[in-house]
Request: fold
Amino acid sequence: MAQNISLMGATYYDVPAVELPKSGGGLATFTDTSDGDAVAGDISSGKKAYVNGTLVVGSASLATATVSGTTLILTNGFPISV
Reply:
């Protein structure tokens, strides 16, 4: 989600991120995360994401499945469409 930014009297529209120079070199990037809606269960266990400016650490286990004849059987994790 992009935001309108005012900087030193100028307005910039639909800005998705801002990059600023760091004192030690390189750039620091600040990305708008206000439209994020994931929760820990939506993100793989141990992976990190920012949702609405807040760090969320994943708790979801990866899906595993077995095939029995022509049937796909999920044992845990995200649903799989076949």
